[in-house]
Amino acid sequence: MQLIKAFEQYPKDKLAEVDKALADAAAEKDRLAKEKELDTKYKAAIAKGDAALKLKTYAAAKTAYNEALVLKSGEQYPKDKIAEIDALIAKEMGAKELDDKYKAAITKGDAALKTKSYDDAKVGYNEALGFKPAEAYPKTKLAEIDKAIADAAAKDAADKERLAKEKELTEKYSAAITKADAALASKDYELAKTTYNEALSFKATEKYPKDKIAEINAILAKEMGAKELEKKYTDAISKGDAALTAKDYATAKTNYSAAIGLKPSEQYPKDKLAEAEKNLAEIAANKDKEAAEKAKEAKYKAAITKGDAAMTAKTYSAAKTAYNEALAVKPGEQYPTDKIAEADKLMGDAAAEKERAAVRREVNKSCN
Q: Which of 124, 144, 281, 364 could crosslink 108 through cysteines, CB 3.0-4.6 Å?
């Protein structure tokens, strides 16, 4: 269909104005929906807290009011209710007893942390938070423990990877030396030199393969003469240059190594060999990086799958452990953070229901 006036600016401006109005309307709708959802969750948490407070199930009530504060941190009502609960608890058990229990839990946590018994330390600090949820010290220590556990795991993984690479390098070097020695014993000098150079690519500072290459060069020089040596050197350089231009770095490396074996004092093949090895190292590094990213993604997805399965099975503690594993792999991800909050809420609901059931039983028992 042919446009009537394709170059007119006015309809284009109006189309842009309409598109902006539609986008603004969609954004406003999304914002209002999110505000409504947040308000609904907040009111539900407040209702749950009020109900628990009415039943004098203070722990469940505080959990609910804290959930409300997570949703709307600036609201005064849940803060007042938490203060009211703390006052009731303090009145019932006495401020000194509460403080003693808090200090005992902190002492237990500090002692366990000093010996790096992280699980016991977390138990102690969590007990302390149960007595005084507003205290920053146990929260700081719990964060410190989580970081120490994550750092230890990362260091262990790095050490294992380094040792595995060192072992692989040693095995490749030893295999190359064995192959080269066998070739030298059978007077296959070209294969021997190539394989000794291969060994040097794994361990560049080793003296033995260098001595063997010098030994072979002396033998070859005596056997074939300077002219033939020059021809082989030139051919190796030409093949190396062609392979380097074609970005066939492995072939280039082989030919420049051969040229160095023929004329160890020549600088050109050394420079070109370094260039080929640099390109090969960059390619290998990129492959390692991609592999590491894939492994990280697989580990994250496995933890999420495990967490989701645990949530479905209503084993919320196991679900939280799995989602925390996912966060250790990808600390900035929102999904496991949301699922942990969901698990905490469900666990709080279950605890509240359990306490309400206990209260009902006591009421029925007293009525009877």
A: 124
Q: What is the torsional sign of CA 160, 164, 167, 169?
A: negative
End-to-end CA distance of the chain: 87
* Angstrom distance (rounded) from CA 359 to CA 61: 14
Percent of the chain with pLDDT over 70: 98
Extents of the domains making up the chain:
167-293, 294-361
Give the per-residue SS3 of the chain.
CCCCCCCCHHHHHHHHHHHHHHHHHHHHHHHHHHHHHHHHHHHHHHHHHHHHHHCCCHHHHHHHHHHHHHHCCCCHHHHHHHHHHHHHHHHHHCHHHHHHHHHHHHHHHHHHHHCCCHHHHHHHHHHHHHHCCCCHHHHHHHHHHHHHHHHHHHHHHHHHHHHHHHHHHHHHHHHHHHHHHHHHHCCCHHHHHHHHHHHHHHCCCCHHHHHHHHHHHHHHHHHHHHHHHHHHHHHHHHHHHHHHHCCCHHHHHHHHHHHHHHCCCCCHHHHHHHHHHHHHHHHHHHHHHHHHHHHHHHHHHHHHHHHHHHHHCCCHHHHHHHHHHHHHHCCCCHHHHHHHHHHHHHHHHHHHHHHHHHHHHHHHHHHC
pTM of the model: 0.30
Looking at residue 222, its pLDDT comes to 80
Chain segment 27-73, per-residue pLDDT in tens: 888 889 989 999 999 999 999 999 999 998 988 999 999 999 999 98
Residue whose C-alpha is closest to residue 144's, from 124, 115, 118: 118
Report residue 237 as tokens: 């350089």
Neighbours of 367 (CB within 10 A): 6
> What dihedral angle (degrees, nearest 10) is formed by the CA atoms of 336, 122, 106, 92?
70
Rounded to whole angstroms, how far apart are CA atoms 361 and 99? 31
Do 337 and 327 touch, CB atoms closer than 8 A? yes
State the virtual CA torsion across 314, 320, 322, 327 in degrees, nearest 10: 150
Residue 313 has pLDDT above 80, yes or no: yes
- pLDDT, tens only, 336-349: 999 999 999 999 99
